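Model it.
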Amino acid sequence: MPTLSSPLASRLPALPEGLNVPPAAAPSRAPLVTIRVARPGDIAALCEMIAALAAHHGDAAPLDADTLERDLFGPVPWITALVAEAGGALIGYAILVPLYRAQLGVRGMDLHHLFVRDAHRGTGIGRHLVAKAREEARRAGCAYLSVSAATGNVKAHRFYEQQDFTAGPVTGMRYVQALR
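Modeled.
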């Protein structure tokens, strides 16, 4: 498989399937990072990272492995998960959820979650996960990729702007009705 140095990889618009990208030099890091679509064996590590992201935002994560497995690999897969793997361990993930603008007949994809473990932040893993998310959205016939971040999360705002996302106003109210 091809490998790219981080400076070259940061100039590429998207990464091919299974692309291997070496992380920034550090003696404690694995020499190679692979960005790929999640597999059933990734469920436990994904659940743990989802809980870590929820905790980071002061939320709980009651998600269980069976539910995540159903939503990723069940009869009607609902989401796509991309993972960053180094040395046999998952160090980050992105979750993609389909969107649709009916009046325009346009498909989109929401980058619902983006997470990189603390020890690997700032090494380009988030950028590579976003690039792989773009590729997956294009492959699904999407015309756009969207993402949101909490109003006060300025660090995330800057990151997404550096990844060529454009901020837009949030208008209206979103209403929810429980179906259970």
